[in-house]
Every structure is written in structure tokens, then in C-alpha cells.
Design brief:
By secondary structure, the chain is mainly alpha-helical. It is 63% helix and 0% strand. The longest helix is centred in the middle third of the chain and has 16 residues, at 52-67.
Length: 132
């Protein structure tokens, strides 16, 4: 998997953050994962259109990509299903995680583009438990 994937998976409401990060050569998932809160605050000083919460969400996506070896779309699905950390993921079971993803799909009135089964969800949960 290409961990240096770009930020194109992010929706249009992240447009300012995507543009700013690309312009500043911060479009590498490894770099984004390593951003501290202090780094994020200093980035906010450079571009008033970026928001702290969106930059932290991008960092959470990078965490899932780097630590769990997920593709960007899988990481995005986890984040928008209400899981923003390895600790949160580690407390779930595959069934409850599948329900969270199902709720997201129903809310968005769409199916995810990835094939999510119980084994895959269990693998994600087990990896997160190992890492925390």
C-alpha cells in the first residue's frame, strides 16, 4: 500500500486544509501522523481558513493508515463512524463496529466502497488492542 497517498479522499468540507497541506508539502500520511497539537496550532497561525478540528481529524485518519495499515478510505470510514483513536477502536467488538459503520451508511444513504466483513473488523480491533 502506498502510505504516501494524497488527501483526495477527504470530502469538500476539508478543501482549505487539503489545499494548505499540499501547498506546504504536508500531504504524506507519515508526516501528518507525526503532527503534534503544537504543530497543528502553529499551522493554524499560518492559515486562518483551516480549523483545528479538521486538522486533528486528518491526523486521526493518518494514525489509522500508519498504525493499522488501512487504506485512506477505510480510515475515513472509521473516523466518520465515530472512532477517532486506537483506544476507542480497541473497546469495540466486530458486531458493534459493523453497526456503527452501518449507521453511517444509512445516514449517508450509500454503501461503503470497501468490502467490510467481521474478520476484517476483528483484525482492526485486535491490531488496535495490541498497539495501545
Amino acid at each position: 500500500m502506498n502510505k504516501q497517498n494524497n488527501l483526495d479522499i477527504l470530502p469538500v468540507n476539508f478543501r482549505h486544509e487539503k489545499k494548505f497541506l499540499k501547498e506546504n508539502n504536508l500531504d504524506n500520511w507519515e508526516i501528518l501522523y507525526n503532527l503534534s497539537d503544537i504543530d497543528i496550532n502553529s499551522l493554524l497561525q499560518k492559515d486562518s481558513l483551516c480549523t483545528e478540528s479538521r486538522l486533528k481529524k486528518i491526523r486521526a485518519i493518518a494514525l489509522f493508515i500508519i498504525k493499522l495499515d488501512l487504506n485512506p478510505y477505510q480510515a475515513y470510514i472509521l473516523l466518520h463512524s465515530g472512532i477517532s483513536s486506537l483506544k476507542t477502536l480497541s473497546t469495540l467488538n466486530p458486531h458493534s463496529l459493523k453497526q456503527k459503520i452501518g449507521r453511517l451508511e444509512r445516514k449517508m444513504q450509500t454503501r461503503t466502497k470497501i468490502d467490510i466483513d467481521q474478520k476484517l473488523l476483528k483484525d482492526w480491533i485486535m491490531k488496535s488492542r495490541y498497539l495501545i
